[in-house]
Amino acid sequence: RGLLLLAAALGVTAAARCPASCVCNNLRAHVLCLNGNLTAIPDTIPELTRKLDLRGNSFMVIPARAFLATPYLTHLDLQRCKVERLEEGAFRGLGRLVYLNLASNGIALLYQESLDGLFSLQQLILEGNRIEEIQLGAFGHLQSLSVLDLRANALVYLPDMVFQGLQGLRWLRLSHNALHVLGSEAFAALPALRRLSLDHNELQALPGEALARLDGATRLDLGHNPITYVAEEALAMPSLRQLFLDHASLQDVAPDAFAHSPQLRILDLRENQLQGLPPLAGAGALVRVSLDGNPLLCSCLLRPFHKWLARARVQAEGVCAAPPALRGRSLNSLKSLEMRCSRLQPPASRTAPPEQPRAAGSRQCPRRCVCSPDFHHGSCENRDLWEIPQDFPEDTRLLDLRRNPFRTVPPDAFPGLKELVSLHLQRCSIRVLHPGALRGLESLVYLYLTNNHLSTLAAAAFEGAPQLAYLDLDHNAFTRVPADTFWFLPNLISLHLQHNAIRELAEGDLAGARGLRWLYLAENAIRHIAPTALAPTKMLEKLQLEGNQLSEVPTTALWGLPALSELKLSRNPIKNMGDSVFLPVASSLQHLYLDNMGLERISPHAFTGLGPKIRSLYLESNKMSNIPDMSNFTGLEILNLQDVPFHCDCKLLPLHRWINKLNLCVGATCGSPAEAQGLKVKLSTTFQTCPGWRRSKAGETNPNKTKAPSKPNKRSGKSPARGFSKSRA
């Protein structure tokens, strides 16, 4: 009440301090600065602001104490702000903040103190960044957090105790990452967790040891993982009520797989490769089992399961695929006598994959280094070491050797570290990585070699590290992609080669990179991409080529990339864009970056094939005066047309009409004629002399005219593009 009275008393002053290009609602203590050109947090935001919306700006870095001037904030939205780094202490002073949205940025690493001071925070949304690694302690001060959203990032590994400090967390969302290694204590510090989403990852086995720490979790999503087998007593979650294992690769489930999850009520096994199930021992609370989409063999081998369903009064959803006489019959309609076996019917086998035991070592920490036995970390950062130290404990999982002048990495440089997952060798003046340098690092997932002097790599440099998924070679001296090295890296998912001096992408450069999903080649000197250069990377999802020397869209090279969803061509000197340049990836492309290129002309048919799937299109800071028809881009969530000198004559009338229908802030401005210069395309009066203007306006504004409801797009089922609640185009 006191704050409201103070706000009313200071209303005039607060309005006077509203930053340029922002909208301030002093009564509600809201400030909106949407889709602008802000590169720093405004320092004139009213002190009593409760909700601050900064979506669609270009901050890059959130510095320490960036919001000290607004201590009463409860809601902060920083979506799509091109943020790449959160400085330690970035949010200090925001002790009242309950909601923080950092979705759709470029954050790659969460530091220990990045989120310091947010002790009232309840929701933290980090979806759609490129977070590869989370440092221990990053969430240590978020004791009030109830929802943590880390979907659609680049996580492969979760170390032990990574979520320490989140005592109140109830929902952890880790979907759409690339997780395939979970520490046994990864979820040990989450006593209040009720729901865990791990779907759409790369887990090849059910992570039973890690999940056993979740005593209170009631829902677990593990669908869309390549899990082939659920072993005996694999899941010990005493409070679990709903388990989703749909769209995996399951071929078999052990009879007592869920014996230690006695509260399980719903088991979703849709769209797997199961021919049947055994009676599920110990699952006394089970109510429903979903088996739709499995090739169920309704023979005598399925009789025990069928009888168990009736005895336990469990509802089963599924249809027989064989034998032919029963094909299409639902499980519930079958009778035992119908389920027969031929004499040649083989017995079902249930052989669990063998587990490889690992013995923990007892070696001590090298001199001048620090080892943490609780977290399995070792660090010799910035110790002026000339040789890579050895004799780290054999159970070390993260090794930090940054800022030491090693110059070379010799063969067998890391003996005995079979459990090492993350290796940091940034800023070590490394010029040579010898063949066999990583030999023996059987579990290595992350390798950071940024800011060194590497110009070539021996093909055998990565021999012995078959699990390597993230290779970061940014800020080195490569003049070409290190060809022939990827045959030793069958699990490589992400390759960083930004800020090098690569001149072209040649045929064979990426040979062997069959599983590559994210390729970062920004800020090189690439002038040419061979037609077949990207052919080996058929699973590629993100291709970042901004800041190179391409003079045309590499259309031919894009054929054969059926999963490509993001293409960045920003800051390339592409002046003209011809017909159908994105046709090879039209069926999958969702995010297209064509900004800051000096683009002068776009063919009317340049976007042929693109349509409802496009979610974001960036065309700002170019020189063209018109753009192609995009009326079928019905799925747009972001469209940026700022700093484009549109010629607002009758030829632009279709764009004017379309923008008026959009619920998006696009920033389109007239560059000519003189009487319209500087006006928003939406507001320009130059279109009023165009043929058909009065007819179109009457259809839009006549209150007596019945307006037909908009029809959803037949392919997508979506209505016209939606976004912010009010258009400020």
Automatic annotation (TrEMBL):
Signal sequence bounds: 1-15
- Would you say which domain of life the source belongs to? Eukaryota
Domain named LRRCT: residues? 294-342, 645-691
Q: Which UniProt keywords apply?
A: Disulfide bond, Extracellular matrix, Glycoprotein, Leucine-rich repeat, Repeat, Secreted, Signal
Q: Which GO terms describe its cellular component?
A: plasma membrane
Q: Name one Pfam family in it.
A: LRR_8
Compartmental location? Secreted, Extracellular space, Extracellular matrix
Name all LRRNT domain ranges: 17-51, 364-398
The annotated region (Disordered) lies at: 691-729
Q: What exactly does this protein do?
A: Potential negative modulator of chondrocyte differentiation. Inhibits collagen fibrillogenesis in vitro. May influence chondrocyte's differentiation by acting on its cellular collagenous microenvironment.
* Recorded family membership: Belongs to the small leucine-rich proteoglycan (SLRP) family. SLRP class IV subfamily.
How does the annotation summarize its subunit structure? Associates with collagen and binds to collagen fibrils.
**What's the name of the protein?**
Chondroadherin-like protein
What is the scientific name of the source organism?
Dicaeum eximium
Q: Which gene encodes it?
A: Chadl
